[in-house]
Design a protein that fits this description.
Blueprint (H helix, E strand, L loop, with lengths): L2 E7 L6 H6 L5 E8 L6 H8 L5 E5 L5 H15 L4 E4 L11 H9 L5 E5 L12 H18 L12 E4 H4 L13 H11 L4 E5 L13 H26 L4 H30 L5 H27 L6 H7 L1
Parallel strand pairs: 1-2, 1-4, 2-3, 5-7
Antiparallel strand pairs: 4-6, 5-6
Helix pairs in contact: 5-8, 7-8, 9-10
Length: about 325
């Protein structure tokens, strides 16, 4: 298979040349995307790197990591590559692992692979506690919004994708900045692509990350919520209508009815001083209890619908 590597380049001038030097022989093309780097990372690579596999691409304005990767994706599609691996230029991702990311795709077991630093307890050594908490919280939220219930570490940027699946994605709609990796998973689920986690260790170099967990958590939560409802409408109302649709609609309706009735009766009791009867309490509680059961049934159905047939196999790789 023709394997390409995408390296977003922004303030990584201290590490990018070493990252390129450690690229294994199986990589046939290396796209270094200078995302309007103020330190001239792209020019540095052009001047000091003699690797014939390297092609430097320049942005006229900063587009974020998502925009840089999308540019590399388009170049790989134009050059007829089969798999594109995304590796950061800051030295935190070991190029020696590229073979592990490509292997499930080459064997027809996955369409998209991503790193998972939570797979082994030993892999978490060196991860700052705030990052550990933030990634754990985002991993849980990500399961709802993307539908990939077996994946963890959604913000991990070490990824690989089959270009035949890449052609099915609307690259112009992908998030351009830090939400890029999570947005990729959302769009991959819409086309029913198979995603597999690859165990890896966390490595922190001397580059200062501009990603602040306390700042991005509220933003990520809002975007995940939006994508959950978009995915629900598309997969359970527009493209298909199944038992999961009935579970969710019945659960939402019963929860709403029970809550509204219960709150109204509680306010009435406060206003009149008359305690609610046991029958009134049951009329409020029963729809809520049954509604919760329906919601749990919907989640169980959603978990069972995680894609398991790689698109690349359907498209002729099998």
């Amino acid at each position: 298979m023709k394997i390409a590597v995408a390296i977003p380049s922004y303030k990584v001038q201290n590490h990018v040349l070493d990252v390129i030097a450690r690229m294994p022989p199986l990589v046939q093309r290396i796209y270094v995307v200078d995302d309007q780097c103020p330190n001239g990372s792209g020019a540095l690579v052009q001047q000091r790197c003699a690797d014939p596999r390297v092609r430097v691409l320049f942005h006229d304005e900063n587009q974020g990591v998502g925009g840089a990767v999308a540019t590399a994706y388009r170049a790989a599609l134009d050059d007829g590559m089969d798999v594109v691996v995304k590796v950061d230029g800051d030295g935190q991702m070991d190029p020696a692992l590229i073979a592990h990311f490509v292997r499930p795709i080459a064997r027809g077991l996955a369409d998209y692979t991503k790193g998972n630093r939570f797979f082994r307890p030993e892999s978490l050594r060196g991860m700052p506690p705030i990052r550990l908490f933030g990634n754990a919280a985002l991993s849980f939220i990500n399961k709802f919004s993307t539908g990939y219930w077996a994946t963890m570490d959604p913000t991990n940027g070490y990824t690989a994708i089959h270009t035949r699946v890449l052609r099915e994605l609307p690259l112009h709609k992908l998030e351009k900045r830090y939400f890029f990796e999570s947005d990729m998973l959302y769009h991959l689920n819409l086309v029913r692509a198979v995603v597999r986690d690859i165990p890896m260790d966390s490595v922190y170099a001397d580059e200062e990350s501009s990603l602040k967990v306390s700042k991005v958590l509220p933003e990520f939560l809002a975007k995940h919520t939006t994508r959950f409802f978009k995915r629900y409408v598309y997969q359970y109302l527009v493209r298909d209508f199944n038992i999961g649709s009935l579970y969710s609609m019945a659960g939402g309706l019963l929860l709403a009815l029970g809550t509204v009735f219960g709150v109204s009766q509680w306010l009435h009791s406060l206003a009149t001083g008359a305690p609610a009867t046991s029958g009134t309490v049951m009329l409020a509680a029963l729809p809520i209890i049954i509604g919760i059961q329906f919601v749990i049934a919907f989640l169980h159905h959603d978990v069972s619908r995680v894609p398991n047939q790689p698109l690349s196999v359907d498209l002729g790789d099998g």
